[in-house]
Design goal:
14 strands, Nucleotidyltransferase, domain 5, 8-stranded mixed sheet, 398 residues, globular, 39% helix, alpha/beta
């Protein structure tokens, strides 16, 4: 079965086509700057890559073009659109209603529409992708895979905020957590690397990219995570502030006369590593600038590592016994210097790395622990698209 995996953002569509159940990637592509005067679409498979600059008025036009590339031209892996047996959609927010992957029907679409208020930046484009795919590929099984589902095993004392409980019961205000597909994938891969059954493995998984989160996993199930009602809570990220005193918002309104929309943009788009360094949200650039003596870049990276180190310490206390700390995603897999910064100081807690192993582990799975470490430190490349394809295939063929 050919499974198309879609990740629809507000102005982009990432897609991959898998041959299941082998999990072979037949093609991967990206449509960018949807809705702008000039956009771009690129696709590659079998070592060939094509790229075109053209306008995409909306997601309908963009997805039609992507499917056209999948079925026509030199990089086309399919002969006909009917060859796509199922479509797996990454959906950011499923609330409490969705604790696992589901087939998409009208009831599911209605429920996702009801969750838009919980993820106003992410769920609308996810829904748009679902609507377009159902129209364009009416015979394919449509499946939703939720970022929040993996964290629905958190206990009440971990997901509730210290607010009047009526806000939870009536408005759904609680910690939901995100990056669930990534945390679930790397947890399974890490248990395999350790040679242990997942249900007997305790892990602290660190998904570090432009958006970052950390999860405490006991016996393969999430029991706590750093992101909350939205992806803004938790670690310092590329442009997101992460944890802070909520009274800062009141101060900005009253003293700086900022509007709610301005504060929203400040905390989500202008803070984090970008705000601290004043130059970039890209860790690669910040590492170069730190080596050149840029104090703001050095401070931004120090705060990034310090915040994550605090979370690791707190999750050690939550779990009691931890088999491994796992680094994944763009920064976690590739920035050896950041991994070293994070682990530095955790040696008394039994967490330490071998510098040479750490430097060699760039974009590959590896155990970078020092021989004396009680808790292993692993680098595990994530593959959310493959997990979505697996879930989609299982539902579509079941």
């Amino acid at each position: 079965m050919q499974v198309l995996v879609l990740n629809c953002g507000s102005s982009s569509i990432k897609y991959q086509l898998f041959a299941m159940p082998k999990g072979e990637v037949l093609a991967r592509g990206l449509v960018e700057r949807i809705g702008e005067a000039q956009g771009e679409i690129s696709q590659q498979n079998d070592g060939k890559k094509v790229r075109y600059s053209e306008a995409f008025a909306d997601h309908t036009v963009a997805l039609h073009r992507a499917v056209e590339l999948l079925t026509h031209g030199e990089t086309a892996p399919l002969r006909d659109v009917a060859d796509i047996g199922a479509v797996g959609h990454r959906v950011v927010h499923g609330g409490e209603q969705f604790t696992t992957t589901v087939r998409i029907d009208e009831e599911v679409v209605a429920a996702l529409e009801a969750h838009v208020s919980l993820a106003p930046l992410h769920n609308p484009p996810n829904l748009l992708g679902i609507r377009v795919a159902r129209e364009l590929l009416p015979k394919a099984v449509q499946v939703a895979v939720f970022d929040t589902a993996f964290h629905q095993t958190m206990p009440e004392h971990a997901y509730l905020y210290a607010l009047p409980q009526a806000l939870y019961r009536e408005a759904g205000i609680r910690r939901y957590g995100f990056h669930g597909t990534s945390h679930r994938f790397v947890a399974s891969a890490a248990a395999h690397m350790l040679g242990k059954p997942l249900e007997k493995t305790n892990l602290i998984t660190c998904h570090l990219g432009n958006g970052s989160s950390v999860a405490a996993i006991r016996g393969g199930a999430s029991v706590d995570t750093s992101m909350g009602l939205t992806p803004l809570e938790g670690l310092v990220m590329g442009t997101r502030a992460g944890d802070m005193d909520p009274a800062i918002i009141f101060h900005l309104v009253r003293q700086e006369k900022m509007t709610i929309d301005e504060i929203d943009k400040l905390l989500n788009k202008k803070s984090g590593l970008l705000g601290l360094s004043g130059v970039s949200n890209d860790v690669r650039e910040l590492l170069v600038r730190r080596a050149e003596g840029d104090k703001s870049a050095a401070l931004a990276l120090q705060i990034f590592a310090y915040r994550l180190r605090k979370y690791i310490g707190s999750y050690l206390a939550v779990l009691g016994e931890v088999d491994a700390v796992v680094f994944t995603a763009g920064i976690g897999e590739n920035a050896a210097a950041v991994r070293a910064d994070v682990v530095r100081g955790l040696e008394p807690l039994g967490i330490s790395i071998d510098p040479e192993k750490n430097e060699r582990a760039i974009g590959v799975g590896a155990d970078i622990s020092s021989p004396k470490a009680r808790t292993r430190v692993l680098v595990v490349p994530t593959n959310e698209e493959k997990l979505i394809a697996q879930d989609t295939y299982e539902l579509a063929s079941g």
